[in-house]
Amino acid sequence: NNMLKEGLLRKNALFNVNLPAETSAQAKGVRMTSLGSRRYRNSITRCADISGEKYYQIGGGDLKWEGPPSSDYRAIRNGYVSITPVNLDLTDYSVLEGIKGWKVKS
Question: How far apart are CA 49 and CA 34, in angstroms?
């Protein structure tokens, strides 16, 4: 398939490629995937920088991956290369449309 001819390559599109632990010769193949998600538990740590300013760091706790059978992490876990098309625009336009009439104090 030619992504350009089929109009599948759009502005702000990226491809997130993940490789399994196996070498490319050992990989079972390639899967087109959706993004899975990772959830941290017990992972928020209160820290201070060198000037004493407080901040919170997320990570290092219990990690749990979630996602449908077509997700990237499942493909990688099963020995496949994962390719996920992603878009840089994370705006939730339905919410934006719903709050359009809100009056916000400035």
Answer: 37
- How far is Cα 43 from Cα 8, in angstroms, rounded to an integer? 38
Tokens 């916000």 identify what position?
104
Amino acid residing at 22: E
Q: Are 55 and 47 in contact (CB under 8 A)?
A: yes
Half-sphere exposure of 76 (CA within 13 A, CB side): 17
Amino acid at 2: N
pLDDT in tens, 6-46: 777 777 778 899 999 877 778 999 999 999 987 777 778 88
Q: Is the pTM of this model over 0.90?
A: no
Q: Which residues contact 54 (CB under 8 A, 6 or more apart)?
A: 46, 47, 48
Residues 6 or more apart from 45 whose CB is under 8 A from it? 56, 57, 58, 60
